[in-house]
Amino acid sequence: MTAPVINTVTELDALESESIFVFREVAAEFERPVILFSGGKDSIVMLHLARKAFSPAGVPFTLLHVDTGHNFPEVLAYRDAVVEQLGLRLEVAKVEDYIADGRLRERTDGTRNQLQTIPLLDAINAHRFDAVFGGGRRDEERARAKERIFSLRDEFGQWDPRNQRPELWSLYNGRHRPGEHVRVFPLSNWTELDIWNYIEREQIPLPSIYYAHERDVFERDGMLLAVGPYSQPRDGETVARRTVRYRTVGDMSCTGAVASGATSAAEVVIEVAASEITERGATRADDRASEAAMEDRKREGYF
Amino acid sequence: MSTLLRLATAGSVDDGKSTLVGRLLHDCKAILADQIAHVKTVSEARGGDFDFALLTDGLRAEREQGITIDVAYRYFATEKRSFILADCPGHVQYTRNTVTGASTADVVIILVDARHGVLEQTRRHLAVAGLLRVPHVVLAVNKIDLVGYDEAVFTKIAKDVGEVADQLGIADLQAIPVSALVGDNVVEHSADTSWYDGPTLLEVLENANGRTDTSNQPLRFPVQYVIRPQTEEYRDYRGYTGTVASGTVTVGDPVIVLPAGRRTSIAGIDRPVVTATSTAVVERPSAIAGEAVTVRLADDIDVARGSVIVAAEHSPGTRRELAATISWLSDRPLTVGARVLIKHTTTTAQAIVTKITGALDLDTLGVIDAAELDLNDIGKVQLKIAAPLAADPYSSNAITGSFLLIDAHDGWTLAAGMIDDEEGELL
Ligand SMILES: Nc1nc2c(ncn2[C@@H]2O[C@H](COP(=O)(O)OP(=O)(O)OP(=O)(O)O)[C@@H](O)[C@H]2O)c(=O)[nH]1
Ligand SMILES: [Mg+2]
Fold first, then answer.
1. So where does this one cross the membrane (chain B) (predicted)?
2. Which residues line ion ligand 2, judged by CB < 5 Å?
């Protein structure tokens, strides 16, 4: 793609205002909102916007992390530092707990992104969260491209893409019955490039894995996977030390790195603008599983 | 304020909306290699040629049925500007989703299949665009390849649609002969339509004016949420957050807070400053329409969510009765006496539909008597509301002039409403 970096400051301002509006609507109309916070760049931008929306007061929401147990240590450290510095409340729902007592079983491929749905829905029920902020963006994936900004989930946490509520202007309708909840996507209209331009403009710190670093990796399905506790090369896969960075962070066993020399947000902006491949296409094995992998997971209540 | 342009497609089922969107993205080089590879694989598996519609028809059911069910949003940029594209469904059953996609559009592209001409759904979508007062409408006479690139076919459809648009008060209509499948006049001028010397679709889009700037209009500032940090540093801080709906708010401005009607003035406007460890605000002199800010007032008066801060010289006052035009979006018909919730800016209140004045007849485009409004009907109603609303006519303010009707029981959005002006014309 040759699209130039033309996002002007005013376009970012418009996106920022739109997101802040959404946070304030939710704070005013819901009783128990929660921000899904993974320590990835989109959730970090989301938290930054929420802080702006309520400044100089604190963020009136809890954070929830659905922990696969396959984490990048840098990301967990970042998460804990943010919670500590800002005095936020963090709930953690652990996939490991479910595997330990048999409520979930490890998949044959060993990856755990898909396993997050049940711990997520259980946490929503247990804490009676009524609004759940997700960092999903419509430009990420074709099922996400169909999402409303306020997206109703039934008692079972299910999304019904064939029967979504109309969403007019910026009049967001958050009405729901007991047991139902609303997923809210304040970053719906942001692109990956917008996110990076904003990180650079606002000087938002990120976990170090988002920038170029050296790592032992091997190639699988056209992705560079890190050698580590959750992913080991199979026969015929050779390990090499390369300079890479991550475009997304998820389950470490199926999130790929990309070869990159970008050491700052400004350099990432240039790289993303010139990229020939989408963020998920480059880095997520789980999305390639089938034609409607994300839709199916979202229907069940996934992020 | 920005060069961003929001587009939505409309028109009858199978007229080629998704194909056109795919073609536009493709020819603007806005589709990345893995997405192209995906569409290729899926198209081949179905034994067909590259199907551009698969770039937006992303749901399983859409692919199985070959129709669009709900809006897909796509983002792309050219050298000149960036775009948010909403590809809407044509099927009558999903009209509510097309209303959704069109409600935020600066430009609606109405497609007509050159072989079929104007259909009922074309008229319905034109009426929706007119009603929503979408600033520009582009008519794409599509599948021109299937009528042998016949100029007469194009001219006839352009004339027919022009007449409908006139009746609906759509002033700005640009007609283009296109083939979404082949790419004629989408991004590149077509050699097969040498009789057409107008702009391509992309040229029209790149040069269209974006959102109307409303910062010169009277101030309207619906209060969303009140901030009281109660920290040592901000002990007595009381800030009213919101997004400027229209006009410009400036420190020192005299204002009225509705519905109470109290006069005061703007003491301060705050902009957040957030670093890794600190959360603070700095003052700014003014803010314009579209900006999310926090204002402070000179007097300690009762202000809460639902209050609207307005220019003291141009107050809309408040009302408990409204005459409005609505687009009915529910399977259950609307009857007189229905009790609903109305959501208007940041107020939600009980309301009763006291009268159905009439419904739009899509054949004649006139208003006819109606005892009830059915799914997808456009009608005129009168409402009695349990709380006073600071409302303007939709024609002068799209934010303080619009509302939703909501089912109090299940929360479903029943209708999109636009408040009539004094003339009370339907469109
Ligand atoms: N020959 C020809 N066929 C076209 C053209 N545009 C679209 N088609 C075909 O028309 C059919 C319908 O196209 P879609 O793009 O799915 O139509 P749509 O308007 O998006 O349909 P809905 O969203 O369901 O209302 C497909 O088979 C397309 O290949 C065109 O310009 N020429
Ligand atoms: Mg379509």
1. none
2. B 17-18, 68
